[in-house]
Amino acid sequence: KVFSPVSGSRSSKTFKPKKNIPEGSHQYELLKHAEATLGSGNLRQAVMLPEGEDLNEWIAVNTVDFFNQINMLYGTITEFCTESSCPVMSAGPRYEYHWADGTNIKKPIKCSAPKYIDYLMTWVQDQLDDETLFPSKIGVPFPKNFMSVAKTILKRLFRVYAHIYHQHFDSVIRLQEEAHLNTSFKHFIFFVQEFNLIDRRELAPLQELIEKLGSKDR
């Protein structure tokens, strides 16, 4: 299910439907725990695995949460991210991303940022909706390849942050979304650092920002 957005058709603020964690489920409790510890303001502590919890489940819940956050953040700037303003998916002049998902598109293709992000978010959503990969029911085990799937999802979600920071930060400031973006990204980075989920080379486009965010928190 790949659809190509017609430029200008996505004026709505939300970009993809929000992925809901079923209320009353254990994952919902974990999400509430995550939100409560986030409220304390100590992000390093907030990302740690709660005592006695399953690592896969903790990573699953947070991955869904980051998908929703990035979805919302990108949704606020879609009108500025167009085929003409962003003909390639980039994060500054040195980093360009080509899309491949290994199934529908095996050979990486060069495409505009809105198209790339559309492919990316649709692909992530398909993974999150797959009960064999992201089981929502208690007692259903996570698959053996769960960690590698989660790492690929997070690596790709990082690229949306990188694109927003490099190409659309002026719009973010105009919309007064800067604090929201920084907090979300800081949370994301502390999380992937805590569990070593993204290769350092992949983080290079935002390395200076990552160091700055980290040094403030030591």
UniProtKB/TrEMBL annotation:
Keyword Metal-binding: yes
Stretches the record annotates as Disordered: 1-22
Name of protein: MOB1A kinase
Biased amino acid composition, Polar residues: 1-12
Matches recorded under Gene3D superfamilies: MOB kinase activator
Keywords: Kinase, Metal-binding, Transferase, Zinc
Gene of this entry: Mob1a
Domain of life assignment: Eukaryota
The species this protein was found in: Halcyon senegalensis
